[in-house]
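Protocol step 4 of 6: structure prediction from sequence.
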Amino acid sequence: MKRLLASLRRQETGFSYLMVMIAITLMGLAMTVAARQWKTMVQRELETDLLAKGIEIQTALALYSASTKAGRVLPGEVYPQTLAELTRPPKPFLRKVYLDPVGRGEWELLRAPAGGIMGVRSKSRQKPIKQGNFPLAVRHFEGKQTHYDWVFQYPNPSMVAVAGPVARPSTAPAQPAIREQPIVPEEPSSPDESRIQEEVDVQATQ
């Protein structure tokens, strides 16, 4: 009897140990899934913030260029030397100089060939979760492999696609000139012809 009780206790202990191990494993899996979901949610929020701030900077660059080159004779865009120039009164185009939300630091600046900042990009090489359905201003981001490929600049492919090719005024083909026929004056009728015509008219009325 004692041996039977001891055997049952050992079986119960082994079963309890097995249940504890299963419970720990399930808890670990649940925590792993929750951590992945949390990471995905955080990354989505950071990407949304990155798009919002990047588009705001891109728009500020466009407004700065349009305002600065007004009345200039030389063609081409005009860009600021620093992002801080976009925030200066009396006409600030940007509320503040934002940091890179994903890279957690300074933006990588894109310099124009003629000088100045024409765009910014994140320094993050992480693959973005968002792959489509981008705002119209950055529609060309679709299918990009890293956040580093999201370049916020002015001008950019999306803006060119929206504007479309420059329409050229259509000219109607020249119509051939119509030659006017000379007007030949009628010769005055002779007295005999007039008399005959009067007789014909009188007979017609009878």
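Step 5 (inspection) to follow. The radius of gyration is 43 Å.
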